[in-house]
Write a structure and sequence with these properties.
The chain contains two helices and 37 strands. The chain is mainly beta. It folds into two domains: 6-391, Methylamine Dehydrogenase, Chain H (7 Propeller); 400-472, Immunoglobulins (Immunoglobulin-like), CATH 2.60.40. It starts with 5 loop residues before the first helix and ends with a strand.
């Protein structure tokens, strides 16, 4: 059994949170917060979990499907109490797609990823044939297929979300493994053939709890919660062939225990968070280049939150949004924050717990293509067992695409709203052929003369620009 099992870790997080909060109250220091000129946002609770429909949505960001609905997981609840996969409309109408039973997996800690085939792929932390977790595929209608049962020799207890590479395979991590106990990186085909790419050795990291980020250079970037030079966690790079390189070892002054997934910003750097450590012991936000240049951007001080468990999302205004699992104004139980690329933090919302707005936002933030934001809390709400919430910062609609890169002639999927009236699609200004799918998706062919840049969709009422650049592969 993994000595760093999630359930032991979760208990420890809440105990340590109380201790760190007390310490931070005594030793809080001034930081680089920027006063907010506008009133804080108001969150709208879209879903209240009550056990029957799921419990504790730990999902690493909700994922938008081709149908315009949002898909996620809950750690517990459902028919057998082993967690669920759910979908919800943007207005909050929830449907439970699958309740895990243990035999087909249990406790899906990570969220889902939308595959190029339109299906969703994910992992369960436990359960399956050997009790060590699974990789699964699920359709938008709820048909679940177990693709792999871990047995420790190929890893066990996968805690991070999968990412699909340019080779159409999925890449992920396990937090435990044998013969070493430090975790692994793997790839798996859509049909379920799994290859272990690397085993961690502790000196290069231990316990990779977050999923991987696919860089524009074709390599994958991730973090380990412990291990490294000071045993406080690492940032690493791994090639699709499995060559692992340690980029940074945390030493507490720059934070420790990174558990959130990295994100590559528009400037090419990777941005992430540490759960603990830093100037006040309350966690950090950092950026790191692909060549390992590390910059500490912000130290939380309890008043603006503490213990940012999850990663960030870069919104269409260029700023980053994230959550802290605790802290905020007096009596608050977590925050939503906005951060500029230079590290200036603004608190967007303080969760006050109880039945009204939830508590302990644990799953990061997602920006939906209508411009609004969504997130989850693992407790609180009218059902007391977690919520899905939304808020708006007045940002305009946009489009997303997958995959993130492709050669000329490749077909990509574009997600958005109001796409049934599309009249033109361009790749960095070059006109592309396209086929309408519905109001929420279409497909387009990468033009022969296209270069790396933004995708733009023209409809009868809007010009919708992509949130990131499409990478044209050679």
């Amino acid at each position: 059994m993994n000595p760093h099992s999630f359930f032991a870790r979760l208990f420890g997080i809440f105990i340590c949170s109380s201790l760190i909060a007390c310490a931070s109250l005594a030793f809080a220091q001034a930081d680089s917060k920027t006063p907010r000129n506008l009133p804080p946002s108001t969150v709208t609770i879209l879903v209240n979990f009550n056990g029957t429909n799921g419990e504790s949505p730990f999902t690493e960001n909700l994922v938008q499907g081709k149908d315009g609905d949002l898909y996620g997981t809950t750690l517990y609840g459902g028919t057998s109490g082993d967690g669920t996969v759910f979908k919800m409309t943007p207005a909050g109408a929830l449907t439970t797609l699958h309740s895990f039973s243990g035999a087909d997996g249990g406790n899906p800690y990570a969220g889902l990823v939308l595959g190029l085939d339109g299906n969703f792929y994910g992992t369960t932390y436990q359960g399956g044939t050997n009790g060590d977790g699974t990789v699964f595929k699920i359709t938008s209608a709820g048909t679940l297929t177990t693709l792999h049962n871990f047995d420790n020799t190929d890893g066990g207890f996968p805690a991070g979300a999968l990412v699909q590479g340019s080779d159409k395979n999925f890449y992920g991590t396990t937090s435990y493994s044998t013969p070493t106990v430090y975790g692994s990186v793997f790839k798996i085909t859509p049909a379920g053939a799994l290859t272990t790419l690397a085993f961690f050795t502790d000196t290069d990291g231990y316990d990779p709890l977050a999923g991987l980020a696919l860089g524009t250079d074709g390599n994958f970037y991730g973090s380990t919660a412990t291990g490294g030079t000071d045993d406080l966690g690492t940032v690493f790079k791994i090639t699709p062939a499995g060559v692992l390189t340690s980029l940074h070892s945390f030493d507490n002054t720059d934070g420790w225990e990174p558990e959130g997934q990295l994100i590559q910003g528009s400037d090419g750097n990777f941005y992430g968070t540490t759960l603990r450590g830093g100037a006040n012991g309350d966690g950090e936000v950092f950026k790191i280049s692909s060549s390992s240049t590390f910059t500490l951007l912000h130290s939380f001080d309890l008043t603006d939150g503490y213990e940012p468990n999850d990663g960030l999302v870069q919104a269409t205004n260029g700023n980053f949004f994230g959550t802290t699992t605790g802290g905020g104004t007096s009596g608050a139980e977590g925050t939503v924050f906005e951060m500029t690329p230079s590290g200036s933090i603004t608190t967007i919302y303080d969760f006050m717990g109880g039945f009204s707005d939830g508590a302990t936002p644990f799953g990061g933030i997602t920006q939906y293509t209508n411009g609004s934001f969504l997130g989850t809390t693992i407790s609180g709400g009218s059902g007391s067992l977690g919520t899905v919430f939304s808020f708006s910062e007045g940002l305009a609609p946009f489009v997303k695409f997958l995959p993130a890169s492709g050669k000329a002639g490749a077909t990509i999927t574009i997600l958005g709203n109001g796409l049934s009236s599309t009249t033109a699609v361009t790749f960095n200004g070059v006109t592309a052929a396209f086929t309408k799918g519905s109001s929420t998706f279409l497909t387009a062919v990468v033009p022969a003369t296209a270069t790396t840049g933004f995708v733009e969709v023209t409809t009868s009422s809007h010009k919708l620009k992509s949130n990131v650049k499409f990478q044209v592969a050679k």
